[in-house]
Specification:
alpha/beta; three-stranded parallel β-sheet; 5 helices; about 15% strand; elongated
């Protein structure tokens, strides 16, 4: 069965990417992006080509993913997340080494080093 133009795939790419942006859970963007990109070629191309969908970057992800997200986010502002409670796959130093060349694009930084402030 062919997908008709009256389906979601008939929407302009910009609108489709905006829908994906609103759908993707910022706590697990790699998982959501992966699932959506497996639907069809159009969705994969939309996800891979939209800088906005790659702006939430966490140390919970492997270094190769962090590099990929930094590259695909192109000139967009990025949100960085490093938390020792989030089971980081990268040390803070390694995460900052990857993110440092992009400091002009940092929108927010979430840090949790596991210390209590009394």
């Amino acid at each position: 069965m062919a997908i008709g133009e009256d389906s979601i795939n008939g929407l302009p790419t910009e609108l489709l990417c905006e829908i994906f942006y609103l759908t993707i859970d910022s706590r697990d963007p790699p998982g959501d992006r992966c699932r959506l990109s497996l639907v069809c070629r159009l969705w994969r191309e939309c996800i891979e080509g939209s800088a906005l969908l790659w702006t939430d970057i966490s140390a919970r992800n492997a270094r190769t993913y962090v590099r990929q997200a930094l590259e695909r986010s192109r000139g967009a502002t990025i949100n960085l997340n490093y938390s020792v409670h989030g089971n980081p796959k990268m040390t803070l130093e390694a995460f900052l080494v990857e993110a440092a060349p992009h400091t002009a694009r940092w929108r927010s930084k979430i840090r949790d080093f596991g210390t209590d402030h009394a």
